[in-house]
C-alpha cells in the first residue's frame, strides 16, 4: 500500500467522522497535517549527508598500549608471586590481568590474555596452598 493510498483511507475515515461538530476542527487540522506530510514526506537533505569513514589506528601511532603493559606487569607479578611466595604479588597480578582484559580490543590475542589470567590464578592458588594463613600486607613487617 503506497502513501497515497494510506492517505486516502485516512481521509475517507475522517470524512465519516466529520458529522460531529465538536470534532470537525480537530479533524480538519489533522487532514491538513496529513496533506503537509504527504507533500514533504522525506525531511532529510541529501546534500548534507556525510558518509562515515572509520579511522585506522595503524598509521598514526596513537594506539592504546594499556592492555599490553598490564599484561606484562601481570606476568611479572605472577612470577614473583610463584617464585618468592608473595601473596600480594599474586593478587596484584590478578588485578593487572583484569585491567588488561577490560581494556583489550576484540582483535587482540585472547590466548595471551587467558594465559595471563591462568598464571595469576595459579600464583594465588599456589601461594595459599603453601601457606594457608591470611595475607599480611607488605608494610606490616615495617611497623613491628
Automatic annotation (TrEMBL):
Keywords: Membrane, Transmembrane, Transmembrane helix
GO biological process, one term: protein insertion into ER membrane
Cellular component, GO, one term: endoplasmic reticulum membrane
InterPro entries: ASTER (IPR005351)
Molecular function terms from GO: protein folding chaperone
Pfam families: ASTER
Main location: membrane
Cell compartments where the protein resides: Membrane
Domain of life, source organism: Eukaryota
Family: Belongs to the Asterix family.
Identification of the protein by name: Protein Asterix
Originating organism: Acanthoscelides obtectus (Bean weevil)
Amino acid at each position: 500500500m503506497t502513501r497515497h493510498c494510506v492517505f486516502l483511507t485516512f481521509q475517507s475515515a475522517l470524512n465519516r467522522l466529520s458529522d460531529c461538530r465538536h470534532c470537525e476542527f480537530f479533524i480538519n487540522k489533522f487532514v491538513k497535517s496529513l496533506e503537509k506530510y504527504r507533500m514533504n514526506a522525506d525531511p532529510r537533505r541529501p546534500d548534507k549527508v556525510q558518509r562515515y569513514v572509520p579511522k585506522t589506528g595503524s598509521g598514526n601511532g596513537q594506539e592504546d598500549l594499556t592492555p599490553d603493559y598490564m599484561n606484562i606487569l601481570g606476568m611479572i607479578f605472577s612470577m614473583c608471586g610463584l617464585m618468592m611466595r608473595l601473596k600480594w604479588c599474586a593478587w596484584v597480578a590478578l588485578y593487572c590481568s583484569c585491567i588488561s582484559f577490560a581494556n583489550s580490543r576484540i582483535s587482540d590475542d585472547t590466548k595471551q590474555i587467558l594465559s595471563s589470567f591462568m598464571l595469576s590464578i595459579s600464583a594465588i592458588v599456589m601461594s595459599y596452598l603453601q601457606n594457608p594463613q591470611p595475607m599480611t600486607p607488605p608494610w606490616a613487617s615495617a611497623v613491628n
